[in-house]
Amino acid sequence: MRLFGVILCAFLFAAADVGPESVTALLAAGRVDDAISTLESRISASPSDADAYNQLCRAYYALGNWDRSISACEKAVALAPGNARYHLWLGRSYGEKADSSSFLTAAGLAKKVRTEFERAVQLSPDDVDARTDLAEFYVEAPGIVGGGRDKARAQAQALVKLDPEKAHWVNARLAEKAKDTATAEREYRAGIEASANSAVAWLDLAMFYRRVGRMDDMENAIVHATSAQTDQSEVLVDAAQTLIRAGRNFAGAIQMLEKYLSGVTIEEFPAFKAHYVLGTTLEKQGDKKGAAQQYRAALSLARSFTPAQDALNRVTR
């Protein structure tokens, strides 16, 4: 019993000593259940831990639980109102909630998105992610909630010195919204040139080709994206999802997802989501057994990920 007590104390000490970097690793590995459990323990021990609340926000964001994501991010911002990244993640959470809300609710949330993104840029003017997200909001949102193309152009101009590729991306999106596909294509290609043929820039072009229905060009751009020298693993996932949404080359998409899962996964696309997307692709190919395996793998990392549970029920009934 004494030995058991020593082991138990050691385990509890280790669990309580999990720091921000360790939680980040859990999120990157897609172990969202473990991350949430660890963060709740940290918050219980230290209720004023703003970073723990921000990471909890990101964990629930990955699960698509927008209400809990918003709640956690609001607490992070309340505890550390001067942290630009906390405002950025709160704005992202409001935005995802808006996308799944009624028109009136979405309008109110959109104003909150703008407020948080603008605050993030104000606090950290050189943050490329914050400026890019704010620019995207200005491009997509109607004027009644604070959107505006002139505002987006101003962000593109600010991005020229910070990240020319992103500046071209914003200008390309503006051209798309104006239905000027020729200018949009030129801007996406200018982004490729500015980034020295980065995989992300090629993928942006591929997504554009999908949206305008140029499927052969889309696949060609994806070949460039996935063959480019890059350490950005999300390119494999985004390329696979682009093919899947276009209904093209499912076999290639499956290979990309398998390659992603065999390497280092990232928080922006946690492993449980990759397993889920791979499962849906296998299901479309008629491989229900393989799909079920992937859905179970997703649930082993994120048991509350409802889409995977619904999909597993569908292929096993």
Describe this structure in words.
The chain has 18 helices and no strands. The chain is globular and about 50 Å long. Mean pLDDT is 92; it is low at 1-17. It has 317 residues and is mainly alpha-helical.
List its traits:
79% helix; globular; mainly alpha; single chain; 317 residues; 18 helices; 0% strand; disordered N terminus
Count of alpha/pi helices:
18
* CA-atom Rg in angstroms: 21 Å
Label the structural class: mainly alpha
Mean pLDDT: 92
How many β-strand stretches? 0
State the end-to-end distance: 46 Å
Series of secondary-structure elements, N-terminal to C-terminal? HHHHHHHHHHHHHHHHHH
List low-confidence stretches.
1-17
How helical, in percent, are the residues? over 70%
Task: Give the DSSP E fraction (strand runs of 2 or more residues).
Answer: under 5%
Shape: globular
| Biggest pleated sheet | none
In terms of topology, how is this protein built?
Layout lengths: L1 H15 L3 H9 L3 H14 L4 H14 L2 H14 L4 H16 L3 H21 L4 H13 L8 H14 L1 H14 L3 H14 L4 H13 L3 H13 L6 H13 L3 H13 L8 H14 L3 H14 L4 H11 L1
Briefly summarize what is shown.
By secondary structure, the protein is mainly α. The chain is built from 18 helices and no strands. It is 79% helix and 0% strand.
